[in-house]
Design the sequence.
């Protein structure tokens, strides 16, 4: 049985990239609050496993193999969701990939590398939003949660496609929020920091001591739960006046920036 | 209602400061999620209103009359809260004094009063409560401010400067206390009203700027406040998050 407060009872959520990591944790946390889940990603084994775990919690689940860079497959994902789940209320655009840019000089990045990077991290979200939003408009409500990255806010060395696409996704969020605010569709963006996606079981105490992860102010990597809970908050009706907002969930890194940790001079106030 | 994982049962919250809207709604939201609440302000009517809301949720309430612009009074108040409840898990700085005047007509006294209420109160409360949270190696500080911390507008120079100050205090404290289990975030509120604004003098003008085409209700800040105060946000710190009907998306 779902064990939460039922804040997403009767809602249907599509989660792309839902087979592993942040997407999987988001699926499970939303299921605990009662949402039926459609898991979409390329790897069949992974999405079926997530779907099984959702069903073990209680709600219905559907695993639909989908490559989000293919508009036809995305359209089919939304169509099947509506037909088989009977509705769609929440879309989490979590699919993304870092590929083809590993410390290469810009002149060695091929057209194909560029296209794949932008397609997976930006166009995929566009295809999903385009397919879902007409339905949201018709029913008079909808929630879209885009998962971007801190690399979409600041420049990272050599990060050409991923960072650029994620920056595009952040502003796409604002454009959608502004355009569809009156249709009661809320569109928000999460920028995760460094997340340990292999650790699906959160540590009992998630705060490690100083000395670890020197570039993250809180001193540790994030866990998928950090992001999943934020997505859960943004998916609920309790956040209906919040739209077009970027939620960086990164252990404090972006807020510090210039000297995230380790540089803390104490200087007496100058006398005249 | 918020998701079960955001439950604040057993937590102690302090809502500090004078503002037209925030004490009552912040206190009510935190209490509804299960926190016991201490509130402090100069205005006794607001203290009573908030106390009533918290009691209605069945939670413990401690109301202390304090001028939060006075550091000594704040320290005394914080000591009293810790004596009564044993700890402080959540601090909400909710100070807002509005002043809308051309810059050249703003007197030094007015400037000081706006800075005192909107910025220096937050300094006093963060310092006194921060000491306690550092001892606990855990805490949540949430500064309730305006989106004008990040945008300029005519006739609001003092207000913008003060709110911007609280925003940068948020980001700096985030870094300073991140390793001590204390998160520091700010909520930026857009145009809010407790009442229906249909036909009000500036309604049409302001609605132009809000994509959602309605004012927010102060109660709509409550869910974000509860989420940020919960145990699920250890990794979310130093952020400025808007509750504004998409205003900041295009303004």
Sequence:
């Amino acid at each position: 049985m779902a064990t939460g407060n039922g804040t997403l009872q009767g809602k249907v959520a599509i989660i792309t990239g839902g087979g592993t990591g942040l997407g999987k944790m988001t699926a499970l946390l939303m299921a605990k609050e009662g949402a039926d889940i459609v898991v979409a990603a390329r790897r069949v084994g992974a999405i079926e496993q997530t779907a099984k775990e959702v069903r073990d919690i209680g709600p219905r689940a559907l695993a639909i193999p989908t490559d989000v860079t293919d508009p036809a497959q995305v359209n089919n994902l939304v169509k099947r969701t509506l037909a088989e789940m009977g509705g769609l209320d929440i879309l989490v655009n979590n699919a993304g990939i870092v590929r083809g840019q590993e410390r290469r000089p810009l002149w060695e990045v091929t057209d194909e590398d560029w296209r794949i990077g932008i397609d997976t991290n930006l166009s995929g979200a566009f295809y999903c939003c385009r397919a879902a939003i007409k339905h949201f408009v018709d029913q008079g409500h909808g929630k879209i949660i885009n998962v971007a990255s801190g690399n979409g806010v600041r420049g990272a060395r050599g990060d050409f496609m991923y960072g650029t696409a994620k920056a595009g996704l952040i502003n796409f969020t604002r454009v959608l929020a502004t355009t569809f605010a009156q249709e009661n569709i809320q569109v928000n963006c999460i920028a995760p920091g460094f997340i340990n996606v292999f650790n699906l079981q959160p540590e009992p105490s998630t705060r490690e001591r100083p000395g670890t992860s020197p570039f993250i102010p809180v001193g540790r990597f994030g866990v998928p739960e950090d992001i999943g809970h934020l997505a859960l908050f943004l998916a609920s009706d309790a956040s209906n006046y919040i739209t077009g907002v970027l939620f960086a969930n990164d252990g404090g890194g972006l807020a510090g920036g210039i000297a995230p940790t380790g540089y803390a001079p104490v200087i007496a106030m100058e006398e005249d | 209602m918020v998701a079960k994982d955001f439950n604040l049962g057993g937590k102690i919250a302090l809502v500090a400061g004078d503002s037209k809207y925030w004490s009552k709604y912040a206190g009510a939201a935190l209490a509804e999620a299960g926190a016991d609440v201490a509130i402090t302000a100069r205005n006794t009517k607001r203290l009573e209103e908030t106390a009533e809301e918290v009691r209605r949720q069945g939670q413990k309430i401690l109301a202390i009359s304090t001028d939060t612009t006075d550091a000594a009074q704040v320290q005394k108040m914080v000591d009293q809260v810790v004596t009564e409840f044993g700890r402080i898990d959540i601090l909400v700085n909710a100070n807002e004094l509005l002043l809308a005047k051309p810059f050249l007509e703003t007197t030094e006294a007015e400037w000081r009063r706006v800075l005192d209420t909107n910025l220096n109160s937050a300094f006093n409360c963060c310092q006194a409560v921060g000491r306690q949270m550092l001892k606990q190696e855990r805490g949540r500080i949430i500064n309730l401010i305006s989106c004008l911390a990040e945008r300029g507008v005519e006739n609001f120079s003092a207000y913008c400067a003060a709110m911007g100050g609280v925003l940068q205090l948020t980001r700096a404290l985030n870094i300073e206390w991140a390793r001590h289990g204390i998160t520091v975030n700010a909520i930026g509120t857009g145009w809010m009203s407790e009442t229906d604004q249909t036909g009000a003098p500036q309604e049409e003008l302001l609605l132009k700027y809000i994509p959602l085409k309605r004012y927010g209700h102060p109660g709509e800040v409550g869910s974000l406040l509860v989420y940020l105060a919960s145990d699920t946000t250890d990794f979310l710190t130093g952020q400025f998050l808007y509750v504004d009907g998409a205003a900041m998306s295009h303004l």
